[in-house]
Amino acid sequence: MSLSLDEVRHIAKLARLELAEGDLAATQAKLNGIFGLIEEMQAVDTDGVEPMSHPQELAQRLREDRVTESDRRAAYQSVAPQTESGLYLVPKVIE
Predict the structure, then answer these.
(1) In the chain, is it the N or the C terminus that has fewer CB atoms within a 10 Å radius of its CB?
(2) Any residues with CB less than 8 A from the CB of 88 and at least 6 apart, and which?
(3) Segment holding 88, helix H or strand E
(4) Cβ of 33: how many Cβ atoms within 10 Å?
(5) pTM across the whole model
(6) 84 has which bridge partners?
(7) Largest Cα span, the chain
């Protein structure tokens, strides 16, 4: 697939990009290069290849799932203007 300069202008307009006339040819070459790479990748036969989450066999180092902070709810609510049953009370803003 090869884009014309008019198509590059149209794409730039849709993307709300302002391209100077001198930049159109360079942008056209870059976009055509990207589309060429996509065509090459689509030409590769991938039947029977299982999807991978990562190209290398790596194990994730996961930390132990445990609580590391103390409960400070009482301290936080002690400075609140109004609380009730462990909840913060706020003024009604929707009528």
Answers:
(1) C
(2) 77, 80, 82
(3) strand 87-88
(4) 10
(5) 0.51
(6) 87
(7) 68
Place of tokens 């290398």: 56
Could you identify the residue written with the tokens 């002690």?
78
Per-residue pLDDT tens digits for 39-94: 999 999 999 988 887 888 888 788 888 888 999 999 999 999 999 998 999 988 88
Q: What is the DSSP string of 46-86?
A: -TTPPP-SSSS------------S---HHHHHHTSS-EETT
CA–CA separation, 69 and 62 (whole Å): 18
Extents of the domains making up the chain: 5-42
Rounded Cα distance between 26 and 3, Å, is 12
Q: How many residues does the chain have?
A: 95
Helix (H, G, I), strand (E, B) or coil at 12: helix
